[in-house]
Design brief:
The chain is of the alpha+beta class. It is built from eight helices and 14 strands. The strands form three sheets. Strands 8-14-13-12-9-10-11 form a seven-stranded antiparallel sheet. Strands 1, 4, 5, 6 and 7 form a five-stranded antiparallel sheet that branches. A hairpin with a 4-residue loop joins strand 13 and strand 14.
């Protein structure tokens, strides 16, 4: 799959859903327009059509002012409690008047079940072409068919500014040597060993709090927390079986120590703006950095290796 932005992935999925629903909703709207003055006939039509409208949870008809003319028609029955309900102020009705005859709403949290949902709205027109009502169809996102392509996280440099309250006092604070700071000559080689020889694919060093978190190739759904005493003890490697450096890793094993050395430089280069935590994922090649100003940065390992400390502290000086 070619990589795309998150918005592009969402847009593609919405286009598929619109194509799936548009014609059916249009045709159903025409049928409803002929019996708009009869609740019984409207509900009969909706009962007949619902099984053919894939993944639909509720079908209903509204008058021109958004007041519900039918029960909610559901699979195998109906919910009469919604008859007469005013839906005009619900999020899925926004923008439907005067712009289009069919709208697929943005996702929203449903009022009753508190689940991500969306609604398709079709304008109903009379024989003179005048708007006379609306046809609504509700869908539960968790019951939709799976998308064909999984969204791929971009690997371009991303800078995320943190808490303004922390950024405003960054030059009134000063780094204090942590236990880990005093033992990086032991900590960094041990983390390197765990990644290259013991199946750790994602490791994060929390310099300020003197701990590490890590995820293993053979057990990716659980993470381990290593306290200071564990992360400085080479015996920790005995707790995890030997594991050949994974072939899916895109970070060359020999460059991991270089990455950790830059972590060290960013930790000690400045007493006010300094690295609080750094992470490395060797499978997707992403570096994560969190600084004392609460700014966070994510970038590919090779781009990270190209930067120098002047770059980082010039960037952080702008509020990063």
């Amino acid at each position: 799959m070619s990589e795309s932005s998150l918005k592009e992935s969402i847009r593609s999925q919405r286009e598929k859903l619109t194509a799936m629903l548009g014609e059916s909703m249009h045709n159903l709207g025409i049928e409803c327009s002929r019996v708009l003055d009869s609740r019984e006939k409207l509900e009969t039509i909706l009962h007949v059509i619902l099984p053919d409208l894939s993944y639909c949870k509720h079908l209903y008809v509204l008058d021109v002012n958004g007041k519900q003319l039918t029960s909610n028609i559901i699979q195998g029955g109906e919910d009469c409690s919604h008859f007469g309900r005013d839906r005009m102020n619900r999020p899925y009705m926004e923008g439907i008047i005067g712009t289009t005859d069919f709208k697929l709403s943005d996702a929203y949290i449903s009022r009753n079940k508190k689940r991500p949902s969306f609604t398709a709205i079709q304008v109903i027109r009379n024989k003179n072409g005048e708007r006379s009502g609306f046809l609504g169809a509700d869908f539960d996102l968790r019951e939709l068919p799976d998308i064909e392509k999984r969204y791929v996280e971009p690997d371009n440099w991303r800078q995320i500014k943190g808490d303004p309250a922390i950024r405003n006092i960054v030059f009134h604070q000063q780094r204090i040597d942590s236990q880990m700071d005093k033992h990086l000559d032991e900590v960094l080689p041990i983390m390197n060993e765990l990644i290259t020889e013991h199946g750790v694919f994602h490791g994060k060093l929390h310099f300020s709090s003197s701990r590490a978190t890590m995820w293993l190739i053979d057990d990716p759904f659980n993470y381990r927390i290593l306290n200071f005493d564990e992360i400085i003890d080479p015996d920790i490697c005995l707790a995890y079986p030997r594991h050949e450096y994974d072939r899916r890793a895109i970070v060359p094993a020999e460059q991991i120590s270089e990455i950790f050395d830059i972590f060290r430089q960013l930790r000690f280069a400045d007493d006010n703006v300094y690295l609080r935590a750094g992470s490395l994922n060797v499978i997707n090649g992403m570096i994560g950095l969190n600084f004392s100003c609460d700014g966070s940065h994510y970038m590919r390992y090779d781009e990270f290796l190209e930067k120098n400390t002047d770059f980082w502290f010039g960037t952080l000086g702008t509020g990063g």
